[in-house]
Write a structure and sequence with these properties.
The chain is 60% helix and 10% strand. It is mainly alpha-helical.
Length: 138
């Protein structure tokens, strides 16, 4: 896009704020940054991640962080799972009608990982969600 970095950061911050306003989450989970082969990409990812975390913290949400290995282990059962395996398990666990894009599947997998942790399932239970046959239901 033609936007400069400050505009992109603002877009991320505002977009997260809109999601928070629309869905009123009580907590959030994000993937920890890994060091990429390209230092410039790693730096840009860190800045975007910082904007997202800032928006979450600004809204008063607790933020949990998980490594890609932890997320894949929680969702697929092995930390070295391929993106296609993550996508397939996300579809299965959430009973989705189609396969989400890889980045959307990663975000959903992070949420599933968090939900399977102690505070995640506890919060889901108090919000009226249950787990049946490995699926979250309301």
């Amino acid at each position: 896009s033609g936007e400069g970095l400050p505009d992109r950061i603002r877009t991320i911050f505002a977009g997260i704020g809109e999601v928070i306003a629309a869905y009123a989450p009580t907590q959030a989970a994000v993937e920890k940054v890994f060091v990429n082969v390209n230092p410039q990409s790693t730096l840009l990812l860190g800045q975007a991640r910082g904007a997202a975390i800032s928006a979450l913290v600004h809204a008063g949400l607790p933020v949990a962080e998980y490594t890609a290995l932890q997320i894949k282990q929680a969702v697929v059962g092995q930390g070295k799972a391929a993106k296609e395996q993550v996508q397939a398990m996300v579809v299965r666990l959430l009973d989705l009608p189609g396969v989400p894009a890889a980045d959307a599947a990663d975000a959903l997998a992070c949420a599933i990982c968090h939900a399977h942790g102690g505070q995640g399932l506890g919060a889901l239970a108090t919000a009226g969600f249950r787990v049946r046959n490995g699926r979250l239901i309301s």
